[in-house]
Amino acid sequence: MLTPTLALSLGNKALCVATVGPAGAQVIQLGDKRIVPAVIAFTPEGRRYDIEAAAKRNLCRQTYDSLPLLFGKDPSFLDSPRFRRIQSFLNLPLKVQDGDIYIELGPDAPPAPFEFAYGSLVKRVLGEASLQLGWTGTVDIIAPYLPFWPSHAQARLTAAIECTGYKCLALYTKHLALGACLMLKLRQPNSRLGPGFHGILDVGEYYSLYAIFQLDTSEVTTMYLNYNVGLGAIDFDIRLADYFLGKLRAQGRESLCDLIEASQRQRTKLLHAIKEAKKILSVNSSANITLDGVGDAGETLTISVTQSDFVAMSMDLVSQYSQLIRAPELTSRISSLSITGGGSRIHPIQHAVTQVVPSALITKVLNPDNSVAEGLGCLALLDQDKYPKKTIPVVRDLCYRSIYILPCADDLQLSGPYEVFKTGDHLPARQSITFTLPPGPIQLKLFDSFEDNIATYTFVVPKNVLHLAVEVAVSINIQLDRSISIEVAQVGGPSLNLSRVWPDPVTSSMFRDMLLKLDADLTKIEEEAEGYATRINAICSRLYALKADEKIDETSRQDVLEALDLLEDGARIEDSVLVDLEERYGVHTA
User: Which regions form coiled coils (predicted)?
Assistant: First the structure.
């Protein structure tokens, strides 16, 4: 690729970044880690990330993880019983405004679109990656989205990425990225996979997705796609939480249960204790759920749970997963099944899979952390025609939505609609269609089989002497990332100027301006907080040195101790006081 390109794989709990080059995608180290926790906290000093943000989870209400949770969601899901139970543990400060879901940045700050948290994480992580790689100037980003997102969610995700200063080269559906990664594994020497049908179960925190691909070394085709947006890894966490509280009640400790239920801090701590126990249950037959600091006496509560207990309490969830992967006819033909995503190691999910697929067919060929980024790299190389020329593979999706075009004048339908891309067509695709249209402004409206408006293109049919209808040839190009471009020309005549009108330019511009202003405001706060901290640290360093100096007199030592007490108190110190201390002790900061 001519421009440095990074693949961003952001899951519900963690993210990784990969460089994209002729050899594919290569996951890079971010500091000392390949996988970074996707946690962000909004504090009075600005945004905090990763471990620092996680540490503030019980202190700062405006702390978010599970970032992709709300993309493409109907705001009404906030009122669902499932989300209310989840919310009782996470207490995400969310609100619905103007039909969209917003997050809170602080008590005195205006609410922000949820995409702002995503964009902030992207800016931070990709900034570190570019610095580490020594990349300056333009950097292109490719990222995944989920197949059940509507088009406007994809547009807002693109805006959130590009508001950080990076160019969003393309978005690809997550199931296609996983399928491409599977094909890469098949093409490797001595691969454990063979040509045929292969299944992938992607277990996210709040959703689950199942796809079956037909693979050989030169083609990957999505044959089946199913998903459940009301079923995910967090449902097992909630089930373990209810088990923990139920066991306490059975021991006659209702008062402690009531105390935990009434304390947001204790409920959040319980959920994270459960996640640790869940990890242990993926490799051991039993684990302890331990919650400390409960009640006035600060009790430590421990409840043991076995793998069989875990399966028994989750049988309804197990049944839903078994149903999810029961693809008519195709499941019996698969030669392997991979479980990926953040919940891939949950024991009851593995139990559910073995109810449908023999355990011998379950493979760990896909790395839950890296597979999406690797697949994104493959798709980007294909889309940009940069794939190594030997045996260039074909990506085909039998499960993507059909796309239709509708010519209109003054919002009145002229003819059609016409199908220009049907489920099962190869990507990229190029279609041509000729319309007989009256002179004047014309809109070409594109929509899919979900009745989701994709785009509206406008142009003007030139007038002729007789004011007769004109034949117009329309060429439609659909790329691997589902992006669509249109060329329009008068038959036997010149090309016509075309403009794209979707998303609505006013709304889109307002959304982008909102994200940019929020980022600028917080960046200013963060710079001021960083400058303040630098001054405090410089003064403290000087005072510690004086405190250790045995040559200073007692009066001066007492002044130093009083100054240290003031600085270590944690309260905000007026600028005039800092200036006085800097001048008195000869401290200079840039």
Answer: none
Domain count within the chain: 4
Closest residue by Cα to residue 425 from 395, 387, 384:
395
pLDDT tens digit sequence for 153-207: 888 888 899 998 888 988 899 999 999 999 999 988 888 888 999 999 999 888 8
Same domain? For 280 and 327 the reply is yes
Closest CA to 175 of 216, 213, 142, 125: 213
Helix H, strand E, coil C: the string for 105-127 is: CCCCCCCEECHHHHHHHHHHHHH
Joined together, the tokens standing for residue 468 give: 């007769």
pLDDT per residue as tens digits for the range 318-356: 999 999 998 777 888 999 999 998 888 899 999 999 999
Query: 4 in helix, strand or coil?
Result: coil
Whole-structure pTM value: 0.86
Q: What is the CATH number of the domain that holds 40?
A: 3.30.420.40
b/e map 397-411, b = 16+ CB within 10 Å? bebbbebbbbbbeee
d(CA 458, CA 476) in angstroms, rounded, equals 14
Q: Which amino acid is at 559?
A: D
Distance CA 532, CA 46 (A): 13
Q: Are 343 and 233 in contact (CB under 8 A)?
A: yes
Structure-block tokens of residue 451? 């009745």
Residues contacting residue 139 through CB under 8 Å, at least 6 positions apart? 3, 4, 5, 6, 126, 130, 166, 167
Asked if 514 and 572 sit in the same domain, the reply is: yes
Rounded Cα–Cα distance for residues 21 and 31 (Å): 21
Q: Which residues have C-beta within 8 Å of that of residue 315, sequence separation ≥ 6?
A: none
In DSSP terms, 459 is beta-bridged to 442
Same domain, 276 and 209: yes
